[in-house]
Amino acid sequence: MADKPDACQAAKDTTAQTAACTAEPAAGIIFHGLSLQETTLAGCLRRQIHDVIDGSSFFDRYSVEAVCMRILLATGAIQEYFREERPNDKAHLLHDLRRLLSELEESELRDAKIADFIKDSVRYLEADAAPAPLEAAGGEGEELSELVRRIPTMLCNETLGYYKWLARTCVEPGDIVELGSWMGSSTACLAEGLSQNPNRKDRKIHVYDSFIWRNWMKAYTEDAELLASNIREGESFTRYFCNYSEPFRHLIEVHQSVLGTGADHFALPTLDWEGGRIAILLMDFAHDRASNEAMWRVFSPSFRSGSTIVVFNQFGNIPAGEVRNFCKDKRRELVPLHKPRSSAKAFRYQRAIA
Ligand SMILES: C[S@@+](CC[C@H](N)C(=O)[O-])C[C@H]1O[C@@H](n2cnc3c(N)ncnc32)[C@H](O)[C@@H]1O
């Protein structure tokens, strides 16, 4: 896996969506006055810059193209903000987004989806009260074994290290629940951490996934065996998960099931929890509200006030506005705890006082 910490790896967390990912950003974008001999977006832009430098073209900052570029940069800034959530960056970001909104209203670009996205982001940032200082998230120096690193993953190194650290240092009683393991990379990090935890006792990691292959998943692996397997849309990939997680089998309980949101039509049991108290729950199924509500219905009765840690892996992803709003609406029960340098965000559960 390419090990560029900030660009490539961050792109993993931020693009690990449940929806399909398209790999052709330039397709369909038309830049007026540009020779389209250059077929990539980067090629078009480079040529435009050369033309402006040479004086053969003029850069109109009010053109639709220029507004689009600023929106793209602002989207990147939002993504960057949610990766780190540095309190000092918020005012600047809000200022830029408000200015962009008024530019958008004055421009010829009429795009309700973009306007709504920026408005929602502004609304969220305005309502997000100045966060109390969070506890330092560990995991940056966490060593991942070769066994773990060989497993295909949708997560960046920062998240993987954080998961291992969380399981290694957890002192609260209860099991670990993981929702969305895919090939088992995150599971292996948890298992490796748990196996090094002096307070491990007989804790288990309960892994939930439909293990149903989707074609967009192929974008997240360079594993030769998996790429060659020709696994098809809708087929089970349980055997790959079992293979990859074999060294940690004694710590894992696998539940092949689906979350009952009504959206899925798999011939699989509906996800259920009959276990005891939960020490840590990692939510990485999806970024829609219904999935998060369904997770809450099933698992929150087994959370312990002041103790259970709930991690939303997709929290900082651009399309994860519904996750952020879900956490905001539950702010009396979900107290921000850790912000690893990735899309993930962890909360401590506390019983809401009526
Ligand atoms: C983002 S991936 C998880 C990535 C993984 N944690 C890793 O380490 O690479 C999401 C996983 O959740 C599963 N999933 C998504 N929605 C689900 C649902 N409603 N019920 C069961 N599994 C689901 C998918 O099959 C997929 O394996």
The level-1 CATH class of the largest domain: Alpha Beta
Task: Work out the helix count.
Answer: 12
CATH architecture of the largest domain: 3-Layer(aba) Sandwich
Series of secondary-structure elements, N-terminal to C-terminal:
HHHHHHHEHEHHEEHEHEE
Q: Largest beta sheet, briefly? A: 7 strands, mixed
Strand coverage percent: 5-15%
- Classify the secondary structure makeup into a structural class: alpha/beta
CATH topology of the largest domain: Rossmann fold
Rg over CA atoms, rounded to whole Å, is 22 Å
Number of strands: 7
The strand line-up of the biggest sheet is 3-2-1-4-5-7-6
Chain-averaged pLDDT: 87
Bound molecules: S-adenosylmethionine
- Shape descriptor reads globular
Low-confidence stretches: 1-11, 14-36
Domain count: the total is: 2
Amount of helix: 25-40%
Rounded to the nearest angstrom, the distance between the terminal CA atoms is: 48 Å
